[in-house]
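Support request, please re-run this one:
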Amino acid sequence: MDDAAADGVIHAAGCVLWRLSDRDRGPGREVALVHRPRYDDWSLPKGKCQPGEHVLETAIREVAEETGGAVVLGRRLLSTSYQRDGRPKVVDYWAARPAAAGPRGSPGVAADTRRARPDVLLPRSFGAR
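Re-run finished. Output below.
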């Protein structure tokens, strides 16, 4: 399947999913990162737009798929662009917070999601408080 839109650009969207925290090292913010086994790296939750899908819908869907939880979008953040397999890719980002307190994550979905402080990855799945 071709992931590029009619303009030849691969469009994607994601979120900087965050929450306030007073755990471990005092007050601060935690940001969710997801482990991508395919690349063996950590990334903000994001993914490609499906045909006809608006980037806001993509951001909400992808974060839910990758973290196991619903989110409430905040302000739009910067976009990133880079080459992927020789084609341009643009990722639009929004700030987001967990939608509501609930389960700490779904096995197999949020198991590879972590909360991060600026210099520490914490070994717990990311969930709302």
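Confidence is low (pLDDT under 50) at residues 102-111, 116-129. Helices lie at 55-67.
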